[in-house]
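Good morning,

Attaching, inline, the backbone tokens for the sequence recovery test we're adding to the shared suite. The designed sequence is right after.
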């Protein structure tokens, strides 16, 4: 049987090679090298975070090797990650190999080449770190998909009550008294409230808790190896953030506070849905916590400021704000003044703006996986032999701004890019770790919250422009995303049509 399997695999390889040859692509050595062990990964890390910066790190290598597929070390490297060696895939043709679960194993690769201790997640390996071939992956993912689907009617009301109303009230009062308002701070506060309300009908503040600092500390400990420019002394910062993992006990009490909240508010969901899926109560609660705080809260911390960033930039040279406001108000007017799903479906421009932000600035920029077997990897220009066990790394902001797919304005924010597009280009939008035209299932690794995220992002833009004709904001960079500080909002002058 083993010999037959090996022969079959060999055939597949030959087929792969044959198909590459048929596509007219030459099979080449993958360019690039890993350099001197230990020293080169540290030099690469410094180059990536401080001397060149993220985009230039990849750009210079593409130019040096004349290829969008090459070998490189990825940070953090020593002593955080034992093996920093990856094959980078940076174009729209090679990148999707990462979605192919027959060729790529996604076991313990959520963070890339390093893996935070499972002590940070109740001694469980959470869903996002499981390969679909592991039986628990299907159980946990089904549980989360069922939970989201059971709460679908609560999302719009929860977003209004726990996010939109308090956030915009605070934003306006801060602008009136201080001339500005830090959106990220308000988002960090109310996104957590909203998620608790949307998933469990009980936000942290309703149970007398403020979990924001617990959540932030716990996230920081896991993401520190990816963060830079917190302090001006780069060598010191490199030592503090990228060299040794922080011990989990530093956030033990924070995690326990989060866990108690999820145990108390998530009990109903766990009893009904997790047991149906065959999950233990404890494993379900740890996964609920992770999906809500790491996946969802961590995601919205980055996504909403990113959308605002592009809206703020676009406001200076286009009439985009006016067009969005007109669209939102006319659609809501047709629904008796209510922002419903039907109204939202009529907002084509808003839908396109959200997809364009997700395309040009995907909130999770890195995807990783190990080759399950030898195979031939194709870029636009060449084909390469990948060996079983090698790590593939995709830098998504390059792959989804590939001019061979999106044209000469691929690196520009084009608000209308996806208007009326139900598939032609949307299939190249990959923020959810899969094409936007496909759905998350227990058999793939696409984000379980895909539809929820897009819905909330569209609601956010619609709510913003139902209230305001336009806004101005100062935009900077903050940790893994944008920092947005509102400086003015112009309240809506026209009534809903
Ligand atoms: C996986 C992004 C919100 C649950 C993922 C992945 C990405 C992603 C890129 C794939 C990671 C990888 O394997 O490389 C985001 C972003 C979000 C968001 C940007 C918000 C803006 C959510 C929400 C949920 C969720 C609201 C709620 C349930 C998950 C789960 C996985 C996942 C369970 C693992 C899927 C699997 O193992 O098959 N997400 N996500 N995410 N996400 Fe999200």
């Amino acid at each position: 049987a083993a010999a037959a399997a090996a022969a079959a695999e060999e055939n597949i390889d030959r087929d792969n090679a044959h198909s590459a040859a048929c596509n007219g692509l030459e099979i080449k050595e993958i360019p690039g090298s890993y350099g001197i062990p230990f020293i080169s990964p540290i030099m690469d890390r410094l180059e990536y975070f401080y001397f060149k910066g993220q985009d230039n790190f990849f750009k210079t290598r593409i130019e040096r090797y004349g290829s969008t597929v090459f070998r490189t070390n990825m940070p953090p490297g020593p002593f955080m990650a034992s093996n920093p060696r990856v094959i980078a895939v940076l174009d729209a043709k090679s990148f999707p190999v990462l979605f192919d679960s027959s060729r790529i194993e996604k076991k313990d690769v959520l963070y890339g080449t390093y893996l935070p201790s499972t002590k940070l997640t109740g001694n469980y390996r959470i869903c996002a770190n499981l390969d679909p071939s592991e039986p628990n992956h299907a159980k946990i993912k089904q549980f989360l998909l069922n939970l989201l689907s059971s709460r679908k009617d609560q999302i719009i009301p929860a977003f209004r009550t726990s996010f939109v109303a308090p956030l915009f009230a605070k934003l306006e009062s801060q602008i009136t008294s201080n001339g500005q308002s830090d959106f990220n701070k308000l988002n960090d506060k109310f996104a957590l409230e909203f998620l608790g309300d949307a998933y469990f009908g009980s936000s942290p503040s309703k149970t007398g808790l403020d979990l924001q600092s617990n959540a932030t500390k716990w996230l920081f400990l896991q993401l520190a190896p990816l963060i830079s420019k917190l302090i001006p002394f780069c060598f010191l910062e490199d030592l503090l953030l990228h060299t040794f993992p922080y011990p989990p006990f530093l956030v033990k009490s924070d995690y326990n506070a989060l866990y108690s909240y999820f145990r108390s508010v998530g009990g109903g969901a766990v009893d009904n849905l997790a047991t149906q899926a065959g999950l233990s109560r404890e494993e379900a609660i740890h996964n609920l916590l992770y999906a809500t705080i790491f996946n969802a809260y961590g995601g919205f911390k980055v996504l909403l400021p990113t959308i605002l960033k592009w809206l703020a930039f676009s406001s200076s040279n286009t009439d985009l704000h006016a067009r969005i406001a007109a669209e939102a108000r006319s659609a809501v007017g047709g629904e008796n003044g209510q922002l419903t799903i039907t109204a939202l479906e009529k907002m084509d421009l808003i839908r396109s703006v959200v997809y364009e932000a997700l395309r040009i600035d995907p909130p999770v920029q890195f995807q990783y996986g190990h080759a399950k077997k030898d195979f031939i990897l194709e870029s636009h220009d060449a084909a390469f032999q990948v060996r079983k066990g090698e790590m593939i790394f995709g830098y998504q902001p390059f792959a989804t701004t590939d001019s061979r797919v999106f044209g000469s304005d691929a690196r520009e924010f084009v608000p209308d890019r996806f208007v009326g597009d139900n598939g032609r280009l949307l299939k190249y939008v990959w923020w959810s770790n899969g094409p936007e035209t496909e759905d998350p299932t227990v058999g793939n690794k696409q984000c379980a919250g895909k539809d929820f995220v897009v819905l909330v992002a569209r609601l956010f833009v619609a709510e913003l422009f139902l209230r305001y004709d336009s806004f101005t904001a100062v935009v900077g960079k903050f940790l893994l995303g944008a920092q947005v500080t509102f400086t003015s909002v112009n309240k809506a002058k026209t009534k809903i049509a």
